[in-house]
Design goal:
By secondary structure, this protein is an alpha/beta fold. The protein has a single domain (3-121), classed as RbsD-like fold. It has helices at 3-10, 45-55, 65-70, 72-81, 92-98; strands at residues 17-21, 32-35, 58-64, 86-90, 104-107, 117-121. It is globular, with a radius of gyration of 13 Å.
């Protein structure tokens, strides 16, 4: 894994927020950006989410309502990766506002609309 990402994951505490984003999400300058993008489309967000699911414990996923209408494949991936995780739907604008509360944002090469999710860190017990 990316050493910067490993360090950031290791510093997560209960209820901390992180975001896994597509290539186009505007990330505030005040938030740490861990850029995994190699080329447009790679790595795809689903691969990054599956890797995080294998290494981390989350208790909530927050994503844009617009994803349900404009990117059902992304929503299906979220539900497949974390079927029992609490979901919160917000407007895309509210999701962008929540970025300022995230410890860091992982930017992927994903090039589909509304493929962004904020994850709330949980505990393994």
């Amino acid at each position: 894994m990316n050493s910067e990402l490993l360090k950031a994951i290791g510093e997560l505490g209960h209820m901390d927020l992180i975001c896994v984003a597509d290539a186009g999400l505007p990330i505030p300058a005040s938030v740490i950006k861990i850029d995994l993008t190699l080329v447009l489309g790679f790595p795809p967000i689903d691969e990054v989410l599956r890797a995080l699911a294998a290494e981390c414990v989350f208790e909530k996923k927050i994503f844009a309502q617009e994803a349900s209408q404009r990117n059902s494949a992304f929503v299906a991936d979220l539900d497949s990766i974390w079927p029992d995780l609490e979901s919160e739907l917000v407007s895309h604008e509210d999701l962008k506002r929540l970025l300022s509360k995230c410890r860091f944002v992982i930017r992927t090469g994903e090039a589909t609309p509304y493929a962004n999710v904020i994850l709330q860190s949980g505990v393994p017990f």
